[in-house]
Design a protein that fits this description.
- The protein is of the alpha/beta class.
- The strands form 5 sheets. Strands 10, 11, 12, 13, 14, 15, 16 and 17 form an 8-stranded mixed sheet that branches. A 3-stranded parallel sheet has the order 3-4-5.
- It has 25 helices and 17 strands.
- α4 (about 140-160) crosses α16.
- It has 4 domains: about 80-285 and about 400-420, 3-Layer(aba) Sandwich (Rossmann fold), CATH 3.40.50; about 305-390, Tyrosyl-Transfer RNA Synthetase (Orthogonal Bundle); about 465-550; about 555-670, 2-Layer Sandwich (Tetrahydropterin Synthase, Chain A), CATH 3.30.479.
- β8 and β9 form a beta hairpin.
- Helices cover about 40% and strands about 15% of the residues.
Length: about 700
Amino acid sequence: MVAARRMECRQYVTWTWTDMVMLVYETFQHADGFFTLILPRGKAYGCPDTQAMTSVLTSTLHLAHEQSLPRGSTGSSREVVFSGIQPTGIPHLGNYLGALRQWKDLQEKSRRKRDASQNPDEWDALYFSVVDLHALTGKQTREELWKASRDSYASLLAIGLDPTVSTIFFQSHAPQHSELAWILSTIASTGYLSRMTQWKSKLELPDNATLNSDAATERLKLGLFSYPVLQAADVLVHGATIVPVGEDQSQHIEFARSLARSFNAHYGGGQSVLLEPKSAISPAKRVMSLRDPSKKMSKSHADPKSRILITDTEAEIRAKVKGAVTDNEPGISYDPKTRPGVSNLVEILKHVTQNEESCESIAKEHEALSKNSFKELVADEIIRACDGFRDRFEYLRQPGNKEMEQAIVRGGESAKANAAAVQDRIRSAIGPLSPTYDKHIYHPEIENKRLSKGKKGLKKRAQDPFTRKDWYSIKAPSTFNQRDVGKTLVNRTTGLKNANDALKGRIFEVSLADLQSDEDHAFRKVKLRVDEVQGKNCLTNFHGLDLTSDKLRSLVRKWQSLIEANVTVKTSDDYLLRLFAIAFTKRRPNQIKKTTYAASSQIRAIRKKMTEIIQREATTCTLSQLTGKLIPEVIGREIEKATQGIYPLQNVHIRKVKLLKAPKFDLGALLGLHGESSQDDSGQKVERDFKEPAPLESV
């Protein structure tokens, strides 16, 4: 028995577009069957028109119906397909033959299923994404990424993908992708990721490169290293069963399958929360560059003639094919090793025409043709395959094109609704990640009451502790370019408790980059100690210096010696300090040997030089002058220069300065350090603006 329900949408016309879609989705999930949806006339907020709204809500109902079905009830004939493309702009011929045309074929297969059956349970669900989050691992500017993303989306529509049959969306429009990527990263193996080829190919490293290599250490970013985890999340968050990929991407699908197995074993409780997808390898292998047949066709190649874009004009296609690199041998034959250029054209002809014969047979069929005639044949077939793409693309990329804008909204909401349903199952499997709002979390705005310490049962509103505190400005010595360090809180002076006494002796750690307004000093931290309070200003003095831990770790390398020295010195104004120096050996000019290990005698000599230079530079100046030497690393350069004859050094730094003992406090010296008057004006005549009256002689 089918229960019918009516849902009036007129009262929701002020809701946002996303709220409306999620309302329909949730209402269906709680319905026993079908219900009637009555849409309002006019426009909904965030939706171009009622026709588009009807289309998207219909798609949402279909998605809700899909997700409400129990596992295995859809039958073996139904597939969920997911695939994505990087937003690199207009696709080239290799992208089209290797992936996009396969998407079109899957869409036509799904369309035939819909025509043959009225049962939505047997229809395939297709999700095609422009993976703009993945593109952040590149070096595109904000404007370049925005344009490339729009061009990629318009290209998908231009080749014939239909938003009413396939869900075409931007990856960033479905936040569930990022959430699942983080969950999967907690179970992903670093060892497995290190063996993946994605980050190696992006950094142009050999396949046997490791994380310990210098190139990987210096250039590899976390986003690129964990790229396959987000790829796996893209697939698994939509419950995909089929993933059409190129031959070089099958490794990533196997990684997604392993993550699904690990998640199910850890959280599934015997159930398959995440489905293990299967890859559908494209019949078209990688299309090679027209100018360099040893490399695949790519938009990163400097020569634009090396690739054919699907929106190229007929003249451009003919010119590029005509200029394709071949060889001096007569005739046409297929031999990728000895004739890579001609073989590449044969493969292009095979895949463009979707010829089921082998490349050898196709080459045999055209062996009598000259290379120019064969190139003309290949160009004709490419033009025929890309017919209409350019006109359709230019129409869609017109400013304010409603068809494209509606497709973006429709695809984003449909993908979000489907991913939300899968993500709900994932969250249910994991369990609650945080305590509930009303039972465990204390909110002073809501529960701002407590029992007083006096009479029992008497309730008293708790006082905001910040009403008894004052803000004070922290001032750095004039040695630094920026004197305004920040602000600090202290309890207001009450009774015998003086706020100034509570502030004196406080130590603040500040980045030298902030004090000097120069990011080159970001790896050093300066300690400032409050010695005096004047008004609302805390006057500080230098108290120490440190290198950041990440800087120290980045300096340590293989095949070099680390040399350290520390010296206790007293400045001319009686500050007792301990300075720690660090240095690393480097290669001599024209050195062939890979290692740069210094001998023990050389290390002792270098350490002696370090000690002498630090003592000379520190004992002949005041603390303020020494601070001025530490900022531009004067002492480090002196050490590097003085030790060249012993062993060349690099990365010489005063890594730490520790204040052991300060002299008796001198207010005048501190005021002078902060650029204020330090002269003793006691006993001097004070100028006055008025004349004092003469003393009275009698009353």
